[in-house]
Amino acid sequence: MFRNLFRRKPTPSKATPGRESKAAQTPDELDPTEESAESTEPERPTPLEEEEAAEREPQPKGPGGREDDLESAPPAGPDAGPDTVEAAPGAEDIVPDAADSEEAPAADLPAVTSEGMPLESPEKRGFLRRLMDGLSKTRATLTRQVSALLSIGRAIDEDLLEELEEVLIQADVGIATTMHLVQRLRDEAAGRQLRDAAELQPLLRSEIEAIVGGDDSSVDIETAKPFVLLVVGVNGVGKTTTIGKLAARWTGEGKKVVIAAGDTFRAAAIEQLEVWAQRAGADLISQEQGSDAASVVYDAVHAANARKADVLIIDTAGRLHTKKNLMQELEKINRVATREVEGAPHEVLLVLDATTGQNAVEQARQFSQITPVTGIALTKLDSSAKGGVVIAVRHELDIPVKLIGIGEQIDDLRDFDGAAFVDALLAAEDS
Predict the structure, then answer these.
(1) pLDDT of residue 9
(2) Residue 323 and residue 255: Cα distance in Å, rounded?
(3) 30 falls in which pLDDT band (50, 70, 90)?
(4) Measuring CA to CA, which residue among 217, 108, 124 is closest to residue 406?
């Protein structure tokens, strides 16, 4: 936008705070009176000479068109804009005025919140595309084989349905859920007198949609204040990361968040949670390692009430269903939360690792016997070829998947959308 401007050798000057300097203005933005004043300068070059001079001289690239930026900035291409320029050498030492901060950040410098958390930029791909990428491994084993199996010209028979069973089981849809789906297809094919295998593809899609559902299943924190969220799961599934990402999301929405460091069992658990709390701008309530977890929750509930917090997130120690003492501790935490806050915990979120496949289903079954699990956060979905576990959990346990992790970025923990999930799972490879 600056290539048509001609500048004589610049002299050091400062842009007036709160105003944009003339060097940063386009010819269309210049005031006519300023053009008149400048017309008194002797021997003004022709437009052609201006063009040639502009190509030889460094182009202004600094915030607000500062003179010190003009001296150090490299030439820009003719199509360079605010989103495509590269940082000039030493640009990190330049502190722009508030009025200059309207320019978009450089493409290689991600926008961050005041707590240092990256924000989602407008240039990021849509959620469906990112979900499709996250499910690419599952799609490679499921969609490709289903498409090849249910192809035009192949007859619908028992051999076909048995092969379909194998494909679904390999994608960790689970035996019970697979048998349900195949039986539904068998019944529909008989009732509609279908003959071609390709006619089963839309039927399979509709049956999966019926299982995962299309209703909003996100965590609604507006139902209580403080909204008490209890997070449970075995070690290594990503509980701490899930808590940190949720805290960052809600503080970014202007909510007051308190985190209870209820995992007093694992070494370094409190320190890791403290890092996430600081990054998210949330308050952390903790005690020494080995303390009574229920006591930590008691302190956290009172702190949340005193600070008028919107959300209280309770972390818990990773536990297996075989560790009876840890399961008893979970029951005690539940009792404390219920006694101190009416209706608490308002959400019991079970974090599962998608890469564990059917083992995740068994974990969900065991945890639901100890505490009323109301939702599931399925992490590492982008690292797994077992995305069918979403279908299995929903069908076998009737527990809604509320959150899915499709990447490592702060905004890659997303509310589960059943329709989008099915679209991404069964999308064609070239879509």
Answers:
(1) 46
(2) 36
(3) very low
(4) 124
**Looking at the domain assignment, is residue 194 inside a domain?**
no
List 106's β-bridge partners, or say none. none
Tokens for 308? 């008028």
User: What is the arithmetic mean of pLDDT over 119-135?
Assistant: 57
* Residue that wins the pLDDT comparison between 292 and 21: 292
Percent of the chain at pLDDT exceeding 70: 65
Q: Does some domain include residue 380?
A: no
**Does residue 387 belong to any structural domain of this protein?**
no
Report d(CA 171, CA 174) in Å as an integer. 8
SS3 415: strand
Cα distances from 386 to residues 4, 139, 264, 392, in angstroms, run: 57, 9, 32, 11
Ramachandran region, residue 218 (left: φ > 0; alpha: ψ -120 to 50; beta: rest): beta
CA-to-CA dists, residue 48 to 45, 52, 55, angstroms: 8, 6, 11
H-run or E-run covering 350: strand 347-353
The domain total for the chain is: 1
Closest CA to 256 of 275, 236, 277: 277
- Are 270 and 263 in contact, with CB atoms under 8 Å apart? yes
User: What distance lies between CA 171 and its chain's CA centroid?
Assistant: 24
Q: In angstroms, rounded to a whole number, what is the distance separating the alpha carbons of residues 273 and 271?
A: 5
Q: State pLDDT tens for residues 305-333.
A: 999 999 999 999 987 655 677 778 888 99
What's the domain range around 17?
1-92
Spatial separation of the C-alpha atoms in residues 284 and 211, rounded to whole Å: 38
What is the crossing angle of helices 269-280 and 239-252, to 10°? 20
Indicate whether this model's pTM tops 0.85: no
Q: Of 214, 232, 271, nearest to 417 (Cα)?
A: 214
Domain assignment of residue 271, yes or no: no
CB 257 within 8 A of CB 313: yes
* Per-residue pLDDT tens digits for 128-179: 676 677 677 667 767 788 888 988 888 999 999 999 999 999 888 999 999 9
